């Protein structure tokens, strides 16, 4: 039992490392093809990978299922596009921290516990520590993009909850990624940068897709099969910290002491609201197709 738990915890941690490592490698593509083409490349390749893994029976979907999957996929596309536009302007760790506030405040909104006011205040303190009240080198537009990405993350969670009630989760994710690809591809063609892909850039895009979707998808399934939902949520609450570390290691993005304190506030707020949530069997608030 202990061995299974250790394996599951390791799988959850490796999943976070993969997701944030994938985001770091994606950011390295921005100078060559920009965030729009990078989003299209990553989502498109992820859709192919997930389709091959899950083999969804698309021909069996009802009209309602297609409608929900379309809204779900649209949320995936917009969320990821805006997030990439954010981290083009600000460090990865700050981008994930700001974005994380979306699902965090959704959890607060759905809660009826007075204690959550404390966690909400802690999350707000974390955000206020990042806001560039003075000239501190943080791009305000990047922060706004990250906040918008967090808003769409919350919408994505709500749509994911709805779609999971009428169909199997893996098929919904795969279908949603296909819809997201169909939405983002015309935008990327209009942008034009994706037409300048070469074999090297395509290979890097494939690596991003594997790290961001295929590996985390599989690792999360392993972890969720052996860990209580609440434990899994507590572990994934560490995403902003892993993002900051990934930015430091792969992108040499050094955060200030204040910015690290901001990350810590949001992480603690997320852990707090998870630990003191009413139900142990609820859907993790901070799962994302990143």
From TrEMBL:
A Pfam family recorded for this sequence: EamA
Membrane-spanning ranges: 36-54, 66-86, 92-110, 117-135, 141-159, 171-189, 201-219, 231-251, 257-276
Localization terms from the record: Membrane
Keywords, ordered alphabetically: Membrane, Transmembrane, Transmembrane helix
InterPro entries the UniProt entry points to: AA-Vitamin_Transporters (IPR050638), EamA_dom (IPR000620), EmrE-like (IPR037185)
Membrane topology summary: Multi-pass membrane protein
Domain spans labelled EamA: 141-273
Keyword Isomerase belongs to the record: no
Superkingdom assignment: Bacteria
PANTHER family to which the protein is assigned, alphabetical: EAMA DOMAIN-CONTAINING PROTEIN (PTHR32322:SF2), INNER MEMBRANE TRANSPORTER (PTHR32322)
Family according to the record: Belongs to the EamA transporter family.
Name assigned to this protein: DMT family transporter
Species for this entry: Sphingobacterium daejeonense
